[in-house]
Amino acid sequence: MKFFNNGWDEVLEDEFEKDYFKELLVKVDEEYNKYKVYPPKGKIFAALTNCDINNVKVVLLGQDPYHEEGQAHGMCFSVMPGIEPPPSLKNIYKELESEYGYPAPNHGYLMSWSKQGVLMLNTTLTVRAHQANSHSSFGWQKFTDRVIQEVSKQDKPVVFILWGRNAINKRPLIDESKHLVLTSAHPSPLSAYAGFFGNDHFKKTNEFLNKNNRGEINWKIENI
Length: 224
Hints:
Elements: H1 7-16, H2 19-34, E1 37-38, H3 46-49, E2 58-62, H4 87-100, H5 111-115, E3 118-122, E4 127-128, H6 140-153, E5 159-163, H7 165-168, E6 180-184, H8 201-211
Parallel strand pairs: 2-3, 2-5, 5-6
Antiparallel strand pairs: 1-4
């Protein structure tokens, strides 16, 4: 069974055949048939389809898709063009401006990061409209844990950016003898002033990538 038509199919092939994954897809299908669910069905796996495992330089870990109309499109923290950037993303832009002087763009679409090798993965990949964490018990985390582990197995050094407790809880899945793990508070307005602002994670990421000859990320998001 092929899901992504890239390197993920090869490393996750056995996961697709597991009972829990088949049951998960059935459960998610039922949700889409009965309720308004985000992201759009064709974008559930967008983080993986847009960023081949062989090209991953950075894993940016989120928790739950945005649950309001038009926001979620399968990549954590990112929203579609024309949608107001949510508060967490606005704080990410503030940190970027602090580190690099980049002004906040006029949108919240982070596809340029994905195309450079930033895997923007939520630990849960679907959510019922207006109900945060409504699919967190469906079994998605078993699948996304496997994704994290597969990146950790890669020989090329990768930076894992873990913001907030939910993301930091995934740290044991990562081989820190090969990879860099950066942790801080979440960029949410509730916690950003408790350790997110000033974490210098974007610069630290590029320093590590350059040191390991992987090529840095251009974090600047251009206006559209």
